[in-house]
Amino acid sequence: MNAAVAEPISEELLRRFDVSGPRYTSYPTADRFVEAFSAKDYQQALTLRRAGVAAAASPLSLYVHIPFCESLCYYCACNKIITKHHDRSAPYLNYLSREVDLHTKELGIGQAVSQVHLGGGSPTFMSDDELRQLMAMLRRNFTFVPGGEYSIEVDPRTIDAGRLDTLAELGFNRLSFGVQDFDPAVQKSVHRVQPAEQVFALVAAARERKFDSINVDLIYGLPLQNPESFDRTLAQVVELRPERIALYAYAHLPERFKPQRRITTTEIPNGAAKVAMLARSMAAFMRAGYVYIGMDHFALPTDALAIAQRQGRLHRNFQGYSTQPDCDLIGLGVSSIGKIGATYSQNAKTMEEYCDFLDQGEFPVVRGLALSRDDVLRRAVIMALMCQGVVSYESIELAHLIEFRKYFASELEALQKLAEQGMVTMSDSGIQVTTMGWFFVRAVAMVFDKYLQTDRTRARFSKII
Fold it and tell me: Which letter, b or e, does each residue of 125-149 get, where b requires 16 or more Cβ atoms within 10 Å of its Cβ?
């Protein structure tokens, strides 16, 4: 499947699939985690990893959550702590070190790591010295694999060219800039003012320092946006030409996320305007030569993500699409999510609870899930669809000892409707997502989600487009 040659998607088709559904950074999804899964269950999963020869040989992925931000962005749904007191990050570093120590006690020092991602919050809230301490601590305890993907989320308001030197020195090879929108009025309405000139200068400086890949995050559906104003942002992003673009739909859920209560509801664009912005974004990026990777992501054909898609090596984890092979993920810090073997886990969401666990010498895990045989099977099918766009009946049958067409008889019947709409083709050997269907791959994956079959309340999820 070559998403690069896809035709522009019509607004009518986007409206037809304007429904809610999971993003499938995991299956089962994080809303299915239970508090019955405890720190002891997580510890046992680590013990099993160390005992398993194959699993222990596969490199780890590390995610570190830095929750601090200097100022509040009104659209934000992330777990964050708003503070101008930069001295708060020093004690947090100490707790992160304690959490790493608990892991090395179970796994041993020197486990190979092929992917590190610092997210938040704003990781660049930390000073250069603190970032140095953090990365030195990780490198003391883990072995970073050459050629791995080492990325950090960057708030353009918190760095300059000198700080980019520090990030390069620390081994980061991928940067993700939070832009959202270049329009000054939109920026003011969401309390995130950052001139376009500042972002352009930073990206130019990052290119001089030879970072492998630069990502820009955009959001459509923010207050005061309209298709014409967003066209101007799209033109600026195309001119900026980052290697990757993440384009997210704003979900207004003020009852769940308090910062969103500061947004004036009447200023939020309506559904038709949002669909128009999405359609025009897709067209603009594909005209500019970007490949549609899937979900919300675009990449230049020369970027590692696009190459991995062409070669069938695309993977997906809690950070989204990845070039790294499917591997265990250790989540460090407040609210972080991890995956070890056939388990998922999540840390405490408040700083007080997170620190309390570590003060007692315990993993700060408060919920998670031990996957059933059916979960593991369906995860394999859903991830094959989300990453390769192909499901081979034979490969699933050999790996999971089932008869695919018998086990998934009702799902295959439901899939017929999507086949009639041109989203998939079905044969005796498997399922193939079409070029058009790749834009709606979440709808295809949802057919195999057992939890959605028994729970039709999908309001908790974002729109699938």
Answer: bbebebbebbbebbeebbebeeebb
